[in-house]
Amino acid sequence: MNVLAMGSFFLGLALLCIIWRILSTSHKRNKTLPPPEPSGAWPLIGHMRILNSQIPIFRALGDLADKQGPVFSIRLGMRRTLVISSWESVKECLKTNDRNFLNRPSFAASKYMGYDDAFFGFHPYGEYWLEMRKIVTQELLSNHRLQLFIDVRVSEIETCIKELYTTCSNGSVLVDMSQSGNTTGSKEPHTDHL
């Protein structure tokens, strides 16, 4: 009788554990559903072939958003990437749940070329990132610092417009603006401000 009571006790305990495990995993599964992902991802490149077609990237992502909804994920290589196309979802991600979306993946390039992820733009969220954000906001992007460099920006714009004028003065010419995008200090020295 004693063995029968012990056996039924352990059997009941095992059934209780199994039922609890099933209920707890099904409850968690409903909360953590991943966003929808379009079909057609290849094993190593993911959805890169969709984005590497003749259609511009914004149109390809817009077409996917029409099919999948305002929030979906694609795979760029081996990494899953969240794509958000509605302003309500963007506001929820960047205002309400901003701490959940602050981390960025660690890449080998940022580790080796960026002094072990020390670059401000690539560093993961933490104490160092918060301190660097404070320094950048106060020292580099303050109104005083922007006013110090206003004549540098004005002279660069004037130089760019003069180049466009001399290039186009002969008639209509196709101009590649990507070559004249970032020329700060390359043509005119601004050593008194730097």
Automatic annotation (TrEMBL):
Gene Ontology terms, MF aspect: heme binding; iron ion binding; monooxygenase activity; oxidoreductase activity, acting on paired donors, with incorporation or reduction of molecular oxygen
Metal-binding listed as a keyword: yes
Locations listed in the record: Membrane
Keyword entries, A-Z: Heme, Iron, Membrane, Metal-binding, Monooxygenase, Oxidoreductase, Transmembrane, Transmembrane helix
A Gene Ontology cellular-component term: membrane
Membrane topology value: Single-pass membrane protein
Protein origin, superkingdom: Eukaryota
Kinase among keywords: no
UniProt protein name: Cytochrome P450
Lineage: Eukaryota, Viridiplantae, Streptophyta, Embryophyta, Tracheophyta
